[in-house]
TrEMBL record:
UniProt cross-references to InterPro entries, sorted A to Z: Amidase_Cbmase, Bact_exopeptidase_dim_dom, Peptidase_M20
Keywords attached to this entry: Hydrolase
Signal peptide: none
Molecular functions (GO terms): hydrolase activity, acting on carbon-nitrogen (but not peptide) bonds, in linear amidines
Coiled-coil segments on the chain, per record: none
Name listed for the protein in its UniProt record: Unannotated protein
Length: 404
C-alpha cells in the first residue's frame, strides 16, 4: 500500500517555487534556454545525481535519468520544466517533481528494479512558447521532426534555435529512447472534470487533434487622421472579424479556436497598420473536424479581406493528429485500486506523451485534480494532498509496470 514521503515532495516544490516567477503577476516565465529554465534543468540533474540515478543529457536540453539495470527495458516517467508566458507552476514541473518523489516512495517500499529500469525524463520546449513548435524536444528525440527543419526555427527576437542552444553549450544532438517499453506522464488536470467527479486522480484516454496556424493579414499603412474611413485597407479589421468568426465557428461546431497572439506593424496608435500576423490555436474532437473548422475560418477571413481591400495568407505551422492512448495500458493503470477505479478522461491539451505514443511507445497519462480548472495562467493550482495522491498513484503505476 502507498507510503508517501511528503517532505520530499513539499521540499522540492518549495525549492522550485521562486524560479522564474514574476513578482507582478505571480505567474512563471520559464522559456527554453533562458536563465530560469536552465536553472531548473541544473536542479533536475542534481536531484537525479543525489538519488544515484544515471543521467543522460542531450544537446537540446532533454534529460533522462535511469534507476536499475542498464540493459533492462525501460519504464519512463516525467514531464517538462518550461512554461507558457506567464504560466502556472504546475503544468510540467508537477510531473517532474512527482516522478522523483515516486522513486523515493518506491525506495521506501523496498522496491528494487530488476526486470525493468525506471527512468525520469524532462523534454525541452514542450510549450513551444519560444520557438513556436510545441513538444520540440520530444519531436526531435522520436524523429517526428528533423533537425533540418528545427534548425530554421527562430524566436520572436529572430534568434535561431542553433544559436539559442549554442549560448547554453548545447549542440542539437538527441538522446535515444531505445529500450523504452512505455511512458507515463503525470500532469495537472487542465480542466474541471476531476473536480466534478470528486476524484483526486484520473487517467487519460486520448488527446484531441490540434494545430497552430499563422494568419498574415496585409493592407496599406496610412495616416490615422487624414485618411477617410472609406479609403482605408486596414488589416486590423480583417483580423478582428476573423477572430470573431473563429469563436463563432468553434462554438457552432462544439470545438475550440483561439487567437492568443498577434503582432502588428508598425504598431503605432496614429497609423493604419500595414500588417497583422495572428496565430490561431484550434483543437477538435476529430482530425476531420479540425480540418473543417480551420477551412471555415480561413474562408471567412478571405471573404472579409476581399471586402476590406486587404489580403490574407494562412500557414499551418504545426498540426498534430489525434492520439488514442494505449487502452490496455490505461485500463491496467486505472483499474483495481483501493477506493475504486480512477476515471478515464480525454484531454484537449497537447503533451510529450502524445508525441511518444504516436512514435509507437505505449504511453499513458495521470491527471491530478486542479480546483480552479484553470491552466496556462497563474491561477493554475493543485492542493498538496492531491499532489501526494498523484505521487502515490504514479508510484503504484511504476511498481505495476516495472515489477517482476
Ligand atoms: C500545451 O500545453 C498545449 O496544449 O498547448
Ligand atoms: Mn501546457
Ligand atoms: Mn504540460
Amino acid at each position: 500500500m502507498a507510503v508517501t514521503v511528503p517532505d520530499d515532495f513539499e521540499q522540492m516544490w518549495s525549492d522550485l517555487a521562486p524560479i522564474g516567477r514574476s513578482v507582478t503577476s505571480g505567474g512563471y516565465f520559464r522559456q527554453p534556454y533562458a536563465a530560469a529554465e536552465t536553472e531548473l534543468r541544473a536542479w533536475f540533474v542534481e536531484a537525479c545525481l543525489d538519488r544515484g540515478l544515471s543521467v543522460e543529457a542531450d544537446g537540446l536540453g532533454n534529460v533522462v535519468a535511469w534507476w536499475g539495470p542498464s540493459d533492462a527495458p525501460g519504464v519512463l516517467t516525467g514531464s517538462h520544466l518550461d512554461s507558457v508566458l506567464d504560466g502556472g507552476a504546475y503544468d510540467g514541473p508537477l510531473g517532474v517533481v512527482s516522478a522523483l518523489a515516486a522513486i523515493d516512495v518506491l525506495r521506501s517500499r523496498g522496491f528494487v528494479p530488476s526486470t525493468h529500469r525506471v527512468g525520469v525524463s524532462v523534454f525541452a520546449e514542450e510549450e513551444g512558447s519560444r520557438f513556436g513548435l510545441a513538444c520540440l524536444g520530444s519531436r526531435l528525440v522520436t524523429g517526428a521532426l528533423d533537425w533540418s527543419a528545427a534548425r530554421e526555427l527562430r524566436d520572436r527576437d529572430g534568434v535561431r534555435l542553433p544559436d539559442a542552444l549554442a549560448a547554453r553549450d548545447l549542440d542539437g544532438s538527441v538522446l535515444s529512447l531505445a529500450g523504452v517499453e512505455c511512458f507515463v506522464e503525470l500532469h495537472v488536470e487542465q480542466g474541471r472534470a476531476l473536480v466534478d467527479l470528486g476524484a483526486a486522480v484520473g487517467v487519460a484516454s486520448e488527446i484531441w487533434p490540434h494545430g497552430r496556424y499563422r494568419f498574415d493579414f496585409t493592407g496599406t499603412a496610412d495616416h490615422a487622421g487624414t485618411t477617410r474611413m472609406e479609403d482605408r485597407a486596414d488589416p486590423m479589421l480583417t483580423y478582428a472579424m476573423t477572430a470573431l468568426a473563429a469563436s463563432k465557428q468553434a462554438r457552432l461546431a462544439g470545438q475550440r479556436a483561439t487567437f492568443g497572439r498577434i503582432s502588428v506593424e508598425p504598431n503605432a496608435t496614429n497609423a493604419v497598420p500595414s500588417r497583422v500576423s495572428a496565430w490561431l490555436d484550434a483543437r477538435c474532437s476529430t482530425d476531420d473536424a479540425l480540418a473543417d473548422l480551420v477551412a471555415a475560418i480561413s474562408r471567412q477571413a478571405s471573404d472579409r479581406a476581399a471586402r476590406d481591400g486587404t489580403a490574407v495568407v494562412v500557414t499551418a505551422e504545426s498540426v498534430t493528429a489525434s492520439v488514442a492512448f494505449s487502452t490496455p495500458l490505461a485500463a491496467r493503470i486505472a483499474g483495481d485500486h483501493a477506493g475504486g477505479d480512477w476515471p478515464v478522461l480525454a484531454t484537449q491539451a497537447g503533451h510529450d506523451a502524445g508525441i511518444l505514443s504516436a512514435a509507437g511507445i505505449p504511453s499513458a497519462m495521470l491527471f491530478v485534480r486542479n480546483p480552479t480548472g484553470v491552466s496556462h495562467s497563474p491561477a493554475e493550482t493543485a492542493s498538496i494532498p492531491d499532489c501526494l495522491a498523484g505521487v502515490d498513484a504514479l508510484a503504484d503505476t511504476l511498481e505495476r509496470l516495472a515489477g517482476a
